[in-house]
Amino acid sequence: MLKKVDVLLITLTSPILVGVYEEKKLIETIESEERSSDVLPLIFKDLLKKYEIQNLFYANGPGSFMAIKVAYVFLKSLSVLKKIPLFARDAFYFNENQPIKAIGKLCFVKISSEIETQKFETVPTSVFKLPDELDYNEFSTNATPLYKIGAVG
User: What is the mean pLDDT of the chain?
Assistant: First the structure.
């Protein structure tokens, strides 16, 4: 019998982070420098052999438009095909609310609950971290991407 787990993805920057959670506790971390479109099918092929995935979670933006789109399409397809619920949370939750690179010197910032762009002279590096424990209350069933394309300007 396979272990029942939840899986969390952060694919906004390199490395891609995948966390496997058993009873809400992080039990396995997978990191990859490869493109999400290339590596996600391989990672999930292995995960589905090893575990019974109960829930899918991901950072739905803001960040790289293509990274968000690939993660969403992949996870939404998996969610529908395997009947696994999909949940999302904005990326600021995973980087201690630090600015996230948009384009050029523009970064996404979260002020209160609003996501805006600000120009920085030196663009900070976003470091994302998988939480040690999943708190389901921090995620939404509205898993649509936060593309925030308005940053180009």
Answer: 93
Side chain identity, residue 126: S
CA 149, CA 119: separation in Å to the nearest integer? 15
Condensed to tens digits (0 to 9), the pLDDT of residues 56-85 reads: 999 999 988 889 999 999 999 999 999 999
Domains of the chain in start order, with CATH, are: 3-94+128-136 (3.30.420.40)
Respond yes or no on whether the N-terminal peptide bond of residue 15 is cis (omega within 30° of 0).
yes
> Which pairs with CB-CB distance under 8 Å and at least 24 residues apart come from 113-122?
115/62, 115/90, 115/146, 115/148, 117/148, 117/150, 117/151
Q: Which two tokens stand for residue 30?
A: 């997978």
Angle subtended at Cα 115 by Cα 65 and Cα 78, rounded to the nearest 5 degrees: 45
